[in-house]
Amino acid sequence: MTKTLHHRACHLCEAICGLSIETEDQADGSRRILSIKGDAQDSFSRGHICPKAVALQDIQNDPDRVRQPLRRAGNEWLPIGWDEAFALVAERLADIQARHGNNAVAVYQGNPSVHNYGLMTHSNYFLGLLKTRSRFSATSVDQLPHHLISQQMYGHGLLIPIPDIDHTGFMLILGGNPLASNGSIMTVPDVEKRLKALQARGGKLVVVDPRRSETAAMADQHLFVRPGQDAALLFGLLNTLFEEGLGRTSHLEIEGLARVREAIAPFTAEAMAPRCGIPAEDIRQLARDFAAADSAVCYGRMGVSTQAFGSLCQWLIQLINLVTGNVDRVGGVLCTEPAVDLVAATSGGHFNRWQSRVSGLPEYGGELPVAALAEEMLTSGEGQVRALVTVAGNPVLSTPNGRQLERALDGLEFMVSVDLYINETTRYADLILPPTAPLEHDHYDTTFNLFAVRNVTRFNEAVLARPEGALHDWEIFVGLAKAFAAKTGIELKPTLAPDQMIDLGLRAGPYGDRSTHKLSVARLREHPHGLDLGALKANLGGRLKTASGKVEAAPALLLGDLERFAAQPVPGEGELMLIGRRHVRSNNSWMHNYHRLVKGKPRHQLLMHPRDLEARGLVDGQRVRVRSRVGMIEVEVGASDDMMPGVVSLPHGWGHARPGVRMGIASEQPGASANDLTDERQLDALSGNAALNGVPVEVVAA
Q1: What pLDDT is stored for residue 340 in this prediction?
Q2: pTM for this structure?
Q3: 501 and 355 share a domain?
Q4: Dist. CA 153–CA 320, nearest whole Å
Q5: Same domain, 461 and 349
Q6: Which of 281, 273, 271, 287 has its CA nearest to residue 238?
Q7: Same domain flag for 358 and 501
Q8: Which residues form the 4Fe-4S Mo/W bis-MGD-type domain (predicted)?
Q9: Close Cβ partners of 27 (under 8 Å, ≥ 6 residues apart)
Q10: Are residue 100 and residue 208 in the same domain, yes or no?
């Protein structure tokens, strides 16, 4: 049997680590995966991989994976041909829109959409034909504040400065755990070695988190912060920089810093200390240490984005970097120059051009906050959502108040899902349209090259042949578009295959036909280990897309939110606040059906400080009930000194044992869904992003 070694990147998380995959040709003409290892010749990941990459073969071989279109008939799923399925989708959606208006059909796109370039290039080829304003995605349970702040300050929602982790002398991380996430809106494979290298060159790593996370455990300093109160800490830091004259001049033209200083003057370190739970002197010393470093990075991720003041947090993080001169500076935060430049090729985005029908939540970039999805289905009246298209998403486990969303999905007239599994969400669909598996199609990372800590590029060839009768995801959207256009009389524009689109993007980009690199897909195919295009460098001044051509430090939108922050009450004594947590073997809800990723020590428990257990008469390992405004779950509790007193932590993405789910291994796992407790009414009121951290809960014996 012939053995072949293939090289491509893992696309299961943002780190895009290089892989070496050995296969063996079989007598029937198929290929069998023999091994998946890190690619030592990949200059970016340097041979590093995490356990998820090895599980790519489990996805490929999973007997639960849907491999042909299925139509639901009661509690059964029956095979259906592609053309018949496309025609049925077109007929049902066109009929619903004709009777109830375009907005009666909603769309939800999940996190895996950005991990698969066929979805990025072609999903809107069909979804755009629906002309619906009822569009939602995982962005508003994850990262919307990042995009909104970049759009407001820099003129483009994707123009996000990335930590220059390989050259910085001081890294302050708030609400991020890159040792578990492999980086997030910071594409950084091999992050542990990079952080150790920072410390080895005399730098300092400081982590702010209500839990002593894996990253906090290796930090030089860890500070506990009250959930939902990171903005208070950040205000105290920024005020100290202003008060003590610790700023550094920037080469960028910045508009509005004086207005910022005046507006936040009341939010001193002393005033903020009782809110965030960190002593004022510690806040001031952290500001001094940050400003004194030759170069420094303030980076905040999920923990600060998914809270009531997520947008303020991301704004303050940018301001701290700006005031200390660390924006667009080596060792600070820098913008990538990707080979396919989405910033140059797209508009900057728009905000609040329309609002959701029921709660009046603002759109961003044509999408409404997903916290409003269920109420748009459940609330009758003109514009009520009556049909849903989901793409690579599981919002029942991923969005706030999942039980409410279950009730909403159960009442839809029609639902279609482009997905590989019958999961907690797709079990409500009338049709499931499965694309090819990850190793059966090619891939190019348009998104994560944009957020990488180095300028890198790679084209990933398919490792395994497409099975007979299977369609790639982009081909599914082309088929849906053709059927819908034929049904509605729309004239459909021609399209190209994804690799042809990428080729055009490469040739038009900064390393394309006008450069010495002459990048194209053909050239990248000659470099299966990928190409390193150099370290990040200052470029923001020439890439700003604000109307003024300057960095806008004081957007009226953000200044207008200060009053809401000032009025927020401090949590009551004895109140428990819920936060999430990540694990390197998980990725949201979609990596739990593979034995190698769920084996080992259980990690589904509710973590709680021993003092909080004792105060409630509870013991380690006991079954407890956790209640919030929206629901109740039962789960095992685990005592942990890594928790801040008054804070409990439950991992996101579990709770698979629900009727109709056809994921055998996942359904056998213990644990409950954190989003059966999170509250669709608890939001970052500015952006509409879900506030999944800082949820008030009660914990009692089960």
Answers
A1: 97
A2: 0.97
A3: yes
A4: 13
A5: yes
A6: 287
A7: yes
A8: 3-64
A9: 1
A10: no
**Amino acid in position 563:** E
Contacts of 614 by beta carbon, 8 Å cutoff, 6+ apart: none
The pair of three-digit structure tokens given for residue 403, joined into one six-digit string: 């039980």
Q: Is residue 619 part of a domain?
A: yes
Residue 435 within any structural domain of the chain? yes
Q: Within this chain, do residues 605 and 654 fall inside the same structural domain, yes or no?
A: yes
- 204-208 long-range CB contacts below 8 Å, 24 or more apart? 204/169, 204/170, 204/171, 204/289, 204/293, 205/171, 205/173, 206/170, 206/171, 206/172, 206/173, 206/286, 206/289, 207/173, 207/174, 207/176, 208/172, 208/173, 208/174, 208/175, 208/233
Q: What is the β-pairing status of strands 333-334 and 170-174?
A: unpaired
Clarify whether residues 577 and 620 are in a common domain. Answer: yes
- Taking the C-alpha atoms of residue 65 and residue 87, their distance in angstroms, rounded to an integer, is 24
Domain span at 628: 571-701
CA–CA dist 20, 22 (Å, integer): 7
Tell me if 137 is assigned to some domain: no
Cα separation of 348 and 488, whole Å?
32
Q: Determine the Cα–Cα distance for residues 390 and 135; give it in Å rounded to an integer.
A: 10
CB–CB of 465/31 below 8 Å?
Answer: yes
Residue 138 placed within a domain: no
The mean pLDDT values, 10 residues at a time, for the chain of 702 residues are 92 93 90 94 92 90 96 96 98 98 98 91 98 97 96 98 98 96 93 97 98 97 97 98 97 98 98 97 98 98 96 98 98 98 92 98 98 98 97 96 98 98 98 96 95 97 96 98 98 97 97 97 97 97 96 98 92 86 84 89 93 97 97 97 97 93 94 96 96 96 96
Structure tokens at 548: 């003024």
Q: Are residues 324 and 355 in the same domain?
A: no
**Which of 597, 458, 448 is closest to 56 using CA atoms?**
597
Check: CB of residue 278 under 8 Å from CB of residue 153.
no
How far apart CA 625 and CA 632 sit, in angstroms, is 7
Q: Which residue has the tokens 């929602």?
A: 157
